[in-house]
Amino acid sequence: MGSLVAAIFLLSAFANGASGFLQPARHARTPYLQFDQRFDHDSQAFLTATGNRFSSQMKRRKTSLYVSDPSLLLMTNSVQKTSQFLVRIVLLRAMAFVHLVAFLVALHQNKALIGDDGITPAKNVLNAAEMRGKLIKEHRKHKDDDARGTPEQQPATPILKSFRQSSLSRFIQNNPKLSRLQNKFANLRELLWDRCDVMHRPVITLLWLAKDRNKLNPWLDAIAIAGLSMSALILLLGSANVPLVFGLWLCQRSLMSVGSPFYGFGWEPQLNELSFHALLLVPLLSLQQIPHLPVSPIIAWTFRWMLFRIMMGAGLIKFRSGDTKWKDGTAMQYFYETQPVPNPLSRYFHWMPKPWHTFEVWANHFVEVLAPWLLIIPGLPLSWRRAAGLIQINFQAILILSGNLSFLNWLTMVPAIMCVDDGFVGGLFSASTRTRAMGAAWTYSTSTGRQLVNVGFLGLVAWLSIPVVKNLLSEKQIMNFSFDPLRLINTYGAFGTVGEEREEFIISAAPDFDGPWKEYEFKVKPGDVNKHPRWISPYHYRLDWQLWIASACRSLDRSPWLLSLLLKLLQRNEAVLNLLDGDPWKGYAEKPKYIRVDRYRYKFHKPTSRNDPVFWDREYVGRVYPRQGLATQEGIKDDIRRLRLLYG
């Protein structure tokens, strides 16, 4: 978090002059935009079509256009400060980049995590959801049958009662074709809605199309590759349409719905919600970088509203979690050492002076609780809105420097882009593209139909936000939760509590009861004290993260999937072993028969010299599993069966 507040003040000042920083200087007789023989004819024709004063002056000047007319300069600046044609290109590319990373992670890891022979197979989620769907369908059928019985059993709702007694209802029941159509609708409802998870949220996934649920690996790969392809296309073009964005949403949702604990992180629904908002940001079919569709202020505000909820959720949960370290200013003394996946700089952040850590805590509260209001209050000066977005982007960039938090911080930056305007990002584009964007801002307006859709979308967001706002105001606030069944608008939060000690589960195995014991090393999870952290952000090692969560809980009770992992390791499952940083038994004639999980306390090691190879100090705490003796394949299978009897 170092230099956070200083950066905030600098960014506030920078926001006022950002246009001058990112655009060519506007001193006397310096061309603002060059229109000579090199100016492409498509852009010239585009501007000619505007039919306004700006276009007519361009046509008269055949060599270079100098902004010598103050009124023209003012109009140009005004258009740039209210339009977001270029901003949309930046946001879509940023969103596509995050999706690209997410689907790349899925392609590399999902077969081992949720594949046919994975740690928590997706088919188990599908089978459980299908069973719930059938039960709900049967319950509804019996309820409808009862409602058609005696007058006392008729529906209490007058509309339903009159419909049941109407000739139309009897006609549908007596007509074979209509009756079959009604049954098909019931089956479709069972497939799309009744098949739900334990929270009664519909399991929306393309995996329902698979004929054989024992062979889902090709489907998992196909979904990831489809998502990668669409993400790459949007990143390349800098544009998107509704089918492309919906495809991203559907592919991500298909994996999130069956991902079990490995897709239980808060940034999964956050990524899904981002693409949901983007559906209203893009044209229906056009893939032009600068389409005939201006960015509606309503849609821009919903992006900022999303960012507001993310930051406020993270900020308020720190005051309500019961962790006094966020109130007395000591939380950052422990955060860098106990965070999920440290990076090479985390140790240096940790060793900053205690007064600086206290300063970081209060700077964090400012960014997460006070600054977000600048995102949504209407009527604020443009410089304030820019500063609000830059504060959040800078904050996320500092978090990226101080630790490996997956693609969470990169993802949180994306809606902040909607705080700036074309005048701010113009320097990222060619003169031709800037000119076309300016011409579009002068020419295009939102159709009445699209305006109605935008207003309807705002109403939907407002309605779905009611329970989210209630949760933010509640003393019993929960984080990373969805109140609507489709998980469109969610509540978020992060690091409500910070541990004071880092404890790690260390898994080791042996071919004999007396050893020798070899530890399993993971990609980024601390293990070997000489192993230094790596830079991996925005990449995400899902298994390593889940092991950190399990270690923080200090038992297997809340992480039963760990038993499946131990079994796969003893079975030498190749896909699962590829998730690790090598197989300790590779090349040995003896294979492991016994396995155990021990708990160790880790602390950053203070180097005694520049060449000191040690990064961590650790001490043994105790045995986690099994509590007595050692675990074998049969013993682990028995424990898994007992857990299934307990939890289903």
Q: What does this entry look like structurally?
A:
The protein has 648 residues and is mainly α. The protein is built from 28 helices and 6 strands. A 4-stranded antiparallel β-sheet has the order 4-3-5-6, covered by helices on one side. Strands 1-2 form a two-stranded antiparallel ribbon. Helix 26 runs antiparallel to helix 28. The longest helix has 30 residues. The chain is globular. The two termini are 44 Å apart.
Question: What distinguishing features does this structure have?
Answer:
two-stranded antiparallel ribbon, disordered N terminus, mainly alpha, 6 strands, 648 residues, globular, 4-stranded antiparallel sheet
In terms of per-residue confidence, which ranges show pLDDT below 50 for 5 or more consecutive residues?
A: 1-44, 46-55, 57-68, 150-157
Total strand count, please? 6
Helix content class: 55-70%
C-alpha Rg, in Å? 29 Å
Supply the helix-strand structural class.
mainly alpha
- C-alpha geometry: globular
Q: Figure out the total of helices.
A: 28
Strand order of the largest sheet: 4-3-5-6
Average pLDDT rating:
86
**How widely separated are the two ends?**
44 Å
Strand residues, percent:
5-15%
Largest sheet: 4 strands, antiparallel
